[in-house]
Design brief:
Homodimer. Pathway: Amino-acid biosynthesis; L-lysine biosynthesis via DAP pathway; L-lysine from DL-2,6-diaminopimelate: step 1/1. The structure is a single chain. This protein is α/β, with parallel strands linked by helices. It has two domains: 4-31 and 282-411, Lyase, Ornithine Decarboxylase, Chain A, domain 1 (Beta Barrel); 34-280, TIM Barrel (Alpha-Beta Barrel), CATH 3.20.20. It is 29% helix and 26% strand. The protein has twelve helices and 21 strands. The strands form three sheets. Strands 4, 14, 15, 16, 17, 18, 19, 20 and 21 form a nine-stranded mixed beta sheet that branches. Strands 5-6-7-8-9-11-12-13 form an eight-stranded parallel β-barrel, surrounded by six helices. Helix 4 (83-91) links the parallel strand 6 (77-80) and strand 7. Helix 5 crosses helix 6, helix 7 runs parallel beside helix 8 (208-226) and helix 8 runs parallel beside helix 9. The longest helix is centred in the middle third of the chain and has 19 residues, at 208-226. The chain binds pyridoxal-5'-phosphate and lysine. Pyridoxal-5'-phosphate (PLP) binds at residues 58, 61, 79, 102, 164, 199, 202, 237-240, 275-279.
């Protein structure tokens, strides 16, 4: 968190005061620290340094071109789940041979485009998808490199909506069916089997479930090896969490994570892929918002801010905790506030009964740790345009996505000429 600090009573990101940015960019907006993104990447890279590894950033966490370019420049690959994400990654400079394509519903045109670009591998999630990739590859006169994503049926201690590795989740192929699926894949004419993929969930802070999952990968590797199916790549997914709430959360033990990989998988001479999203960008960004009104009641005090659930969905979707801080350091007495947005839903709430120094109309606050699953999950509910994104590096800042023009948003609709005039 070292890049977010109060200096002269003003909250800074790197060398730039947030209030300086807000003078030229209307709130709400996201702001990211390029240096923190770089540091997060380099720290993971050094943790894995003596393993033959490739970090494929999970583009779903933050797909801004400037963020992707920052990571690509350090050598990052990309884990994508749609044609759009694939195009974004390539456009930002990620080479195709560092791209893995995950996701349960890849369509033929997406597969075709990825094949033509020459991506590193498709992470296959079902038998039906396997046949479809084979069909498209035959049509394109190519061979598709694939890994099969297994569902190891391992539970993790995270929000139910972001656990992915248990039998009830839609992801991957059940462990019991995995061997047969690999054999099937190996016999398809336009498929080259190269890897095993596993991803058990997101915001994982206790790394022990990785051990059970990787054990299953190791067992499968051995069975495949005995059948002469050559596995060169072990894609271990993402999922490492961050500390959103210093009073209640801990950071994952990265030494232990690394040791689990070593203990369970190092006997195989494979390339390891990891697909971190949140752990590379979440703590590098915040959402800056202005207090529109305070509304002091007998039961509750509300702070109505100009960001809302359409801009940042995590609190309303997952009841996620995010720290909220005033931009101007304050010595005023604390008050308990419900911090809410202007959208017409009671779920449009960023925090309940949060203690903050007294704030009033015009004051700025930041919602912290919004650099992953923030802007990417925003929408235009209540006809609110998508907000700007800003990047800071040292003493410089730049808009890296312009706020959506409200008129453009309205003009997307068309009124058919057969409607009553
Ligand atoms: C296949 C896959 N890889 C990587 C990720 C990134 O996860 P995280 O942001 O938790 O690192 C996800 C999201 O859960 C995923 O589904
Ligand atoms: N959107 C989720 C993470 C999803 C991970 C992708 N499988 C979050 O904000 O926590």
């Amino acid at each position: 968190m070292s890049e977010f600090k109060y200096k002269s009573s003003q909250l800074h990101i790197e060398g730039v005061a947030i209030s300086t940015i807000s003078k030229s960019i209307p709130t709400p907006f996201y702001v990211y620290s390029a240096t923190m993104i770089e540091n997060n990447f380099l720290s993971l890279q050094s943790r894995l340094s003596d393993l033959n590894h490739l970090i494929c950033f999970a583009v779903k966490a933050n797909s801004n071109q400037a963020v992707l370019r920052t990571l690509a420049a350090l050598g990052s690959g990309a884990d994508v789940v749609s044609l759009g994400e694939l195009k974004r990654a390539l456009h930002a400079g990620v080479p195709p041979h560092k791209v893995v394509f995950s996701g349960v519903g890849k369509k033929a045109h997406e597969i075709e485009y990825a094949l033509e670009q020459g991506i590193l591998q498709f992470n296959v999630e079902s038998v039906a998808e396997l046949h479809n990739i084979n069909k498209v590859a035959i049509k394109c006169n190519k061979s598709a490199n694939i890994a099969i994503r297994i569902n190891p049926d391992v539970a993790v201690d995270t929000h139910a909506k972001i656990t992915t590795g248990t039998a009830e989740n839609k992801f991957g192929i059940g462990y019991e069916q995995a061997l047969d699926t690999f054999v099937l894949a190996d016999n398809l004419p336009a498929i080259t089997v190269q890897g095993i993929h596993v991803h058990i969930g997101s915001q994982i802070t206790d790394v022990t479930p990785f051990k059970a999952a990787f054990k299953r990968v190791a067992d499968l590797y051995k069975q495949l090896n005995a059948l002469g199916i050559d596995i060169k790549v072990l894609d271990l997914g993402g999922g490492l969490g961050i500390c959103y709430d210093p009073e209640n959360d801990s950071l994952p033990d990265m030494a232990e994570y690394r040791q689990i990989i070593e203990d369970e998988l190092s006997e195989f001479n494979c390339q390891y892929i990891v697909e971190p999203g949140r752990s590379l960008t979440a703590d590098t960004g915040c959402l800056v918002s202005e207090v529109i009104y305070d509304k002091l009641g007998t039961d509750r005090n509300f702070l109505i801010v100009d960001a809302a659930m359409n801009d940042f969905a995590r609190p309303s979707l997952y009841d996620a905790y995010h720290r909220i801080s005033p931009v101007l350091e304050s010595t005023k007495p604390n008050k308990k506030y419900d911090i809410v947005g202007p959208v017409c839903e009671s779920g449009d709430t960023f925090a309940v009964a949060r203690e903050l120094p007294e704030l009033e109309s015009g004051d700025l606050v930041v919602i912290q740790d919004c650099g992953a699953y923030g802007a990417v999950m925003s929408g235009t509910y209540n006809t609110r345009p998508l907000i700007a994104e800003v990047m800071v590096k040292n003493d410089a800042f730049a808009v890296i996505r312009k706020r959506q023009n409200l008129d453009d948003l309205i003009n997307l609709d068309q009124i058919p000429n057969w409607l009553a005039s």
